[in-house]
Design a protein that fits this description.
The protein has 268 residues and is α+β, with helices and mostly antiparallel strands. It folds into two domains: 4-116, N-terminal domain of MutM-like DNA repair proteins; 130-253, Helicase, Ruva Protein, domain 3. It contains eight helices and nine strands. The strands form three sheets. A four-stranded antiparallel β-sheet has the order 1-2-3-7, sandwiched between helices. The longest helix has 20 residues, at 182-201. Mean pLDDT is 87; it is low at 65-75. It binds zinc ion (ZN). Zinc ion (ZN) binds next to loops.
Length: 268
């Protein structure tokens, strides 16, 4: 452990003891949490936050050209926060310039409890139905953008994919969730799924320092429809993409294409 921040509020020594000489038997994901299941039933849970990255290095450090490229840069060595030595001589490294990323070890029972209070429905699962979208947004007066970023609703949607999903659904980021009708629920559900699947196809989006586990850059940033395209032409109508701030996050949208729904008046 190179930076005690990584395991905060737990002490680094406790984390080290929990993973030392354990075998990784499975690798998974819940929302934005990455999970390494160990042979004693415990699970290492890692959240990358904004700038964290996990990279797997081969024993000689040079088998994956992508890895070598990342670690040529001083910045990455400087921001190395944790190092897991594997029994084949390879290494799993966690780097994080902004130090928001965290890791902890949880028992099977604790894990479900941890996630149940934090995570909603998985957008790429069968549970993400139009009915689920309707139920989650019913009565919500807050902006749709904030709803999409709240991990207790749809899990795993970040700032980029929320903008891209809302454009695909032709919904204004400030529209209140509770004002949507059936067609809007359907459009937003499809918009989220399409945006995420496109991102997966393209290997993610590399804006600043994102790399996948082999150190490769994604391609999604070259195909953004609205995100980070302020002042550029809308691909659908030719109008100008605007930027606003919603809940402290930069938000990009097309005012022509994305309809702002009115708040429904309450019936007496
Ligand atoms: Zn437009």
């Amino acid at each position: 452990m190179l930076d005690p921040y990584f395991t905060k509020p737990e002490l680094p020594g406790n984390f080290e003891r929990a993973v030392n000489r354990r075998e990784i038997v499975d690798v998974g994901r819940r929302g934005k949490y990455l999970m390494l299941e160990l042979d004693d039933g415990n699970t290492v849970v890692i959240h990358l936050r904004m700038t964290g990255s996990l990279v797997l290095l081969a024993p000689d450090g040079s088998e994956n050209p992508g890895d070598a490229r990342i670690y040529e840069a001083d910045a990455s060595e400087k921001h190395l926060k944790a190092r897991f030595t594997l029994d084949d001589g390879g290494e799993l490294r966690f780097s994080d310039p902004r130090r928001f990323g965290r890791g902890f070890v949880a028992g099977a029972g604790d894990l479900e409890e941890y996630f149940s209070s934090r995570l909603g429905v998985e957008p790429l699962s069968e549970d993400f139905t139009v009915e689920a979208m309707a139920a989650m947004t019913a009565g919500r007066t807050g902006p749709l953008k904030s709803f999409l970023l709240d991990q207790k609703g749809v899990v795993g949607v970040g700032n980029i994919y929320a903008d891209e999903a809302l454009f695909r659904a032709r919904l204004h980021p400030l529209s209140p969730g509770g004002s949507m009708k059936h067609d809007h629920h359907l459009a937003l559900r499809d918009g989220v799924v399409d945006a995420l699947e496109r991102g997966l196809d393209l290997g993610g989006a590399s804006i600043d320092d994102y790399r996948d586990a082999k150190g490769e850059k994604g391609g999604m940033q070259n195909e953004f429809l609205v995100h980070r395209r302020e002042g550029e032409e809308c691909v659908a109508c030719g109008g100008e993409i605007k930027r606003i701030v919603v809940g402290g996050r930069s938000t990009y949208f097309c005012p022509n294409c994305q309809k702002r729904l009115r708040r429904r008046s309450k019936r007496k």
